[in-house]
């Protein structure tokens, strides 16, 4: 199973998606860090302001005025419509007060980073903090907020709805024994950044992928057509109408070059066919005349030997011309039941008394060039009979291929010579005797027939002995 796409369109789209996700991931990290830094800076400034302004507000407020302000603050804090959000707001007497000792409770962990930031900020305002303590605790863990929640049930209910923790800041200035203590809820992290980034990523993805898909399809569509035309021309070798020029300028130049190359190759193949036809005619005519003349030879043995030589030359010439013509037929392939095709070929050998058997496994139909596939199967059977004396033909389906298999019980082929045996004029028997070695074109013709059908010829030695030859045709 392949996870990566094979096509140019799929690979570019995958690369764009990966690059976009990586870029947005980096942007998300940077924006998150920037938002966190802004949030910490806002918390530090709020704590400093509360410490500096809390004392002045406490001095201005009398006992009764301070009580009235605390009640109004508590009412605003408990009002669900106040400020339109769930931010919890502490009453003033809790937000700031002065104490005789540090607000740090036993076992609590001090926030060293925030202490350093707040100390630097206070020093810029001319405040000399001799001791500074910052801790973070939950609302109900703080003594003052817990006591207030016990006095006001509505406040306790509201505290259970907010996710805020409480930041407790204690400062003792130089020369003073009084601790100034500020309490402020820590606001939750802004989740709008995540939603914004997700929406931004979606919009970018739709826009970029949509535009890139349109551009790539304009490039890959003519390339796909060009690949199909080239594959078809490479298999059949039959010239077709020039491919329509389309796409970007680079692709247009490629199509124009392909059309020119196809026209040139088609012209050369046409000239080759004319030349081979002329050669075949010019050679067969004198051979026929020579065959007539040898009838006047009185020595019967010499006459039979001459006639056999002429027939050998004629058959070799036919095989050479057939090999040159494979794939040059203008006739389209036709849907054929391969079992019936093999049966007709096997009957030819049975009529000649040759020991050939046939096995089929169900109906297997394929689009083939009937005459050429018969020729290829016939050559494999001839090869088996020549070297083993018998042949077993089997038609089967395997892994999406139709297989025309021919087994024999002969000597097989040395493993290092199997590829060599598929080349023209290569024979398994070294003599030039037609009965034992042939011209060395049978397997080459069978391979050419298989390749004409986008398949292959496979030769393997059977473990029990003998050779197995298979024409594999994709279905």
Give an overview of the whole structure.
With 475 residues, the protein is an alpha+beta fold. Among the domains are: 8-190, no CATH class; 332-474, Histidine kinase-like ATPase, C-terminal domain (Heat Shock Protein 90). It is built from 12 helices and 11 strands. 20% of the residues are buried.
Number of strands: 11
In percent, how helical is the residue content? 55-70%
Q: Output the radius of gyration.
A: 47 Å
Point out poorly predicted stretches: 62-86, 430-437
Give the CA-based shape: rod-shaped
Strand order of the largest sheet: 6-8-9-11-10
Q: What proportion of the residues form beta strands (DSSP E)? A: 15-25%
Q: Write down the overall mean pLDDT.
A: 78
**H and E string:** HHHEHEHHEEHHHEHEEHEEHEE
Content-based structural category: alpha+beta
Oligomer: single chain
Number of DSSP helical runs: 12
* N-to-C span: 20 Å
Subcellular location: Cell membrane
Domain HAMP: 217-270
Biased composition (Basic and acidic residues): 58-73
Enzyme class: transferase
């Amino acid at each position: 199973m392949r996870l990566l796409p094979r096509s140019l369109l799929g690979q570019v789209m995958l690369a764009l998606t990966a690059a976009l996700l990586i870029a947005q991931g980096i942007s998300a990290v940077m924006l998150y860090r920037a938002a966190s830094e802004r949030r910490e800076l806002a918390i530090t400034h709020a704590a400093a302001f509360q410490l500096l302004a809390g004392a002045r507000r406490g001095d201005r407020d009398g006992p009764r005025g301070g009580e009235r302000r605390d009640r109004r603050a508590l009412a605003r804090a408990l009002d669900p419509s106040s400020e339109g959000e769930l931010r919890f707001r502490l009453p003033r007497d809790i937000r700031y007060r002065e104490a005789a000792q540090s607000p740090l409770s036993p076992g609590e962990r001090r926030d060293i980073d925030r202490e350093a930031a707040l100390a630097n900020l206070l020093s810029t305002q001319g405040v000399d903090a001799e001791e500074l303590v910052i801790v973070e605790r939950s609302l109900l863990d703080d003594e003052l907020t817990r006591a207030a929640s016990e006095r006001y049930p509505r406040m306790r209910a509201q505290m259970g709805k907010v996710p805020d923790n409480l930041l407790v800041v204690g400062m003792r200035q130089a020369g003073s024994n009084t601790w100034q203590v500020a309490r402020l809820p820590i606001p939750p992290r802004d989740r709008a950044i995540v939603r914004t980034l997700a929406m931004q990523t979606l919009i970018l993805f739709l826009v970029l992928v949509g535009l890139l898909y349109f551009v790539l399809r304009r490039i890959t569509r003519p390339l796909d057509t060009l690949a199909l035309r080239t594959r078809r021309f490479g298999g059949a070798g039959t010239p077709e109408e020039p491919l329509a020029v389309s796409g970007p300028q680079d692709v247009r130049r490629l199509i124009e070059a392909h059309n020119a190359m196809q026209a040139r190759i088609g012209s050369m193949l046409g000239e080759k066919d004319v030349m081979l036809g002329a050669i075949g005619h010019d050679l067969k005519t004198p051979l026929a005349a020579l065959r007539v003349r040898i009838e006047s030879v009185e020595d019967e043995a010499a006459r039979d030997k001459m006639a056999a030589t002429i027939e050998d030359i004629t058959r070799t010439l036919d095989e050479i011309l057939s090999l040159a013509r494979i794939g040059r037929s203008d006739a389209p392939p036709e849907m054929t039941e391969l079992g019936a095709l093999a049966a007709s070929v096997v009957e030819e050998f049975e009529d000649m008394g040759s020991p050939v058997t046939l096995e089929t496994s169900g109906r297997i139909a394929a689009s083939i060039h009937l005459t050429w596939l018969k020729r290829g199967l016939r050559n494999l059977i001839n090869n088996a009979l020549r070297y083993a004396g018998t042949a077993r033909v089997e038609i089967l389906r395997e892994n999406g291929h139709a297989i025309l298999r021919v087994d024999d019980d002969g000597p097989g082929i040395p493993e290092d010579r199997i590829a060599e045996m598929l080349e023209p004029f290569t024979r398994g028997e070294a003599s030039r005797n037609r009965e034992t070695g042939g011209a060395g074109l049978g397997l080459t013709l069978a391979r050419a027939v298989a390749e004409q059908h986008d398949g292959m010829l496979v030769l393997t030695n059977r473990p029990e002995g003998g050779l197995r030859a298979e024409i594999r045709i994709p279905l």
